[in-house]
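Example S7 (structure tokens).
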């Protein structure tokens, strides 16, 4: 049997860790690894057009599967392009291993062609970031990197010079069983007892949920019923907690709706469950606050806590719920449910007036129709900016759908490459990229990746020929809009020229048929919808001194459209509320 080189050993370890594919762009220093993948049937090389797309795709794959995903870039500029997507994966707690290929080891530190220092560049967007400078470090260094990414949830970066990758692997290397899943974390009995006393003493309890409630829907509902608590959520908590939720009072924060803000500010005890909600201006400063999180470094960094609980949400509630006294008073819960339904009723009325005749098309209408037509288990990837607004307000979660975006890092151009990663996981699952024209054109080259691999991603392009969120920021700041207008082509024609299905929609009556036809198409498709750039107005409710900069702008967003099927859910939750 031929002796392995370092690249072959590297690839074998990735396969043992469950990695199915490596996203990247080939290059000289990376060639030994790519060649090792070519000869290994257990893993695929996915050629993208930009390394940033590789990192976004790997991050999306990791979020869909919960398992390790991987990407790679060649030396210098190649791996530098990974950094934005890696920041997003890291802040989303997506387990991603990035290979940053490096210049020849004998030239490091001498100003060689394309020289950078990846061990410095990726420090802030990774849990682990080291260089393999000697074959003897394999496989221990790579195994350590993998366990950091999986165990801590986030990115590990391994840099490796191309000449080291080609050297023979050590004959008696140490290979141990890899950690490929995370354990549950149970709080100590002392914290559970303190939390139990606080819940029992409070008359009005509100739960505010983030992405850390994934897998804990049943436990949150059981606890909410026991203590008669309204349940609000952050954007990243929406897909995990809003469905089948008779206690739902909507979303707080920059894109908030309903009664979540009132519920979190009018309670006696606010319990933050699995959320690193960044906008402390929306959190109360005159009620008791408890935070439960599996990552202790996040406890208390947004607001002053009366109790910090280190543990995952599901295990914490499993310990807590049987110990707290059942509450019978529903007055606070019922009042918040009614406020929530009334708030949604108002914006829906504004949306429904002549929307099917409005040209340019209301983007809210597009999102609403998309929500109705998409599969029950569809994966939506959502561009940052106005597409975040449409997704937050119109996509209806049901426990099977997924919604992925750059919700913590806030990068443009994320939706298309994230759709690539999501679609590679399962070609038979519907994947819809909700793209803005600004974000789409930033990484438009990777639409060709869809064509090259015949990935059946459906790109729904909200084309208002502007950077809508930036324009709104300028408006709120009292500035004239400047530099926000895009001169766009007919994107449907571009899609067809690339070899994909493309259709342009300019009138509302064309929309439903165009989406249905695109969804039926077996390959990649793009629906270019010309939308109204003036679809927003500013409500008087939120004061200008609440937040500043981007937060101020976004917090003032209200839609001429409503909130999709959420009104129906809110009204159904009022059936058992006594008439007031």
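Recovered sequence:
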């Amino acid at each position: 049997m031929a002796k392995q080189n370092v690249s072959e050993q590297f690839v074998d370890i990735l396969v043992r860790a469950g990695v199915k594919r490596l996203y990247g762009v080939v290059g000289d220093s990376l060639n030994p690894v790519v060649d090792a993948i070519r000869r290994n049937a257990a893993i695929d090389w996915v050629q993208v057009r930009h390394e940033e797309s590789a990192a976004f795709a790997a991050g999306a794959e990791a979020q869909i599967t919960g398992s390790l995903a991987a990407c790679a870039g060649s030396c210098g500029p190649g791996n530098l392009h990974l950094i934005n997507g890696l920041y997003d994966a890291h802040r989303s707690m997506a387990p991603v291993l990035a290979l940053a290929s490096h210049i020849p080891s004998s030239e490091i530190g001498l100003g060689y062609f394309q020289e950078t220092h990846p061990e410095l560049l990726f420090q802030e967007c990774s849990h682990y970031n080291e260089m393999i400078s000697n074959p003897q470090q394999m496989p221990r260094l790579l195994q350590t990197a993998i366990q950091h990414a999986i165990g801590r949830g986030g990115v590990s970066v391994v840099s490796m010079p191309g000449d080291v990758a080609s050297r023979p692997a050590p004959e008696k290397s140490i290979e141990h069983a890899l950690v490929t899943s995370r354990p549950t974390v149970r709080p100590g009995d002392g914290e559970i007892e303190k939390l139990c006393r606080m819940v029992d003493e409070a008359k009005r309890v509100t739960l505010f949920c983030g992405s850390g409630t994934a897998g804990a829907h049943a436990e949150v509902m059981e606890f909410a019923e026991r203590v008669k608590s309204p349940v609000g959520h952050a954007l990243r908590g929406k897909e995990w907690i809003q469905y089948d939720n008779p206690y739902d009072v909507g979303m707080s924060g920059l894109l908030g709706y309903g009664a979540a803000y009132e519920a979190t500010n009018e309670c006696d005890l606010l319990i933050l469950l699995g959320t690193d909600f960044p906008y402390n201006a929306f959190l109360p400063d005159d009620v008791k606050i408890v935070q439960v999180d599996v990552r202790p470094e996040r406890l208390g960094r947004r607001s002053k806590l009366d109790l910090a609980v280190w543990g995952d949400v599901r295990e914490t509630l499993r310990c807590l719920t049987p110990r707290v006294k059942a509450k019978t008073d529903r007055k606070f819960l019922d009042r918040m449910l009614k406020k929530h339904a009334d708030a949604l009723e108002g914006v829906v009325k504004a949306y429904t007036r002549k929307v099917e005749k409005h040209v340019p098309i209301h983007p809210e209408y597009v999102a609403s129709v998309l929500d109705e037509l998409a599969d029950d288990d569809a994966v939506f990837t959502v561009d940052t900016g106005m597409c975040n607004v449409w997704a937050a307000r119109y996509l209806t979660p049901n426990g099977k759908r997924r919604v992925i975006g750059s919700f913590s890092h806030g990068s443009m151009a994320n939706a298309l490459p994230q759709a690539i990663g999501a679609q590679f996981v399962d070609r038979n699952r519907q994947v819809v990229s909700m793209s803005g024209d600004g974000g789409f054109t930033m990484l438009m080259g990777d639409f060709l990746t869809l064509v090259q691999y015949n990935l059946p991603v459906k790109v729904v392009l909200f084309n208002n020929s502007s950077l809508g969120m930036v324009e709104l920021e300028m408006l709120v700041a009292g500035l004239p809009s400047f530099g926000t207008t895009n001169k766009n082509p007919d994107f449907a024609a571009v899609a067809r020229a690339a070899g994909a299905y493309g259709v342009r929609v300019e009138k509302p009556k064309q929309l439903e048929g165009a989406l249905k036809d695109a969804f039926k198409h077996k390959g990649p498709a793009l629906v270019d919808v010309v939308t109204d750039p003036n679809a927003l107005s500013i409500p008087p409710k939120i004061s200008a001194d609440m937040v500043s900069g981007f937060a101020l702008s976004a917090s003032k967003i209200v839609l001429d459209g409503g909130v999709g099927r959420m009104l129906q859910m809110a009204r159904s939750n009022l059936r058992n509320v006594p008439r007031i």
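Notes on this example. The radius of gyration is 25 Å.
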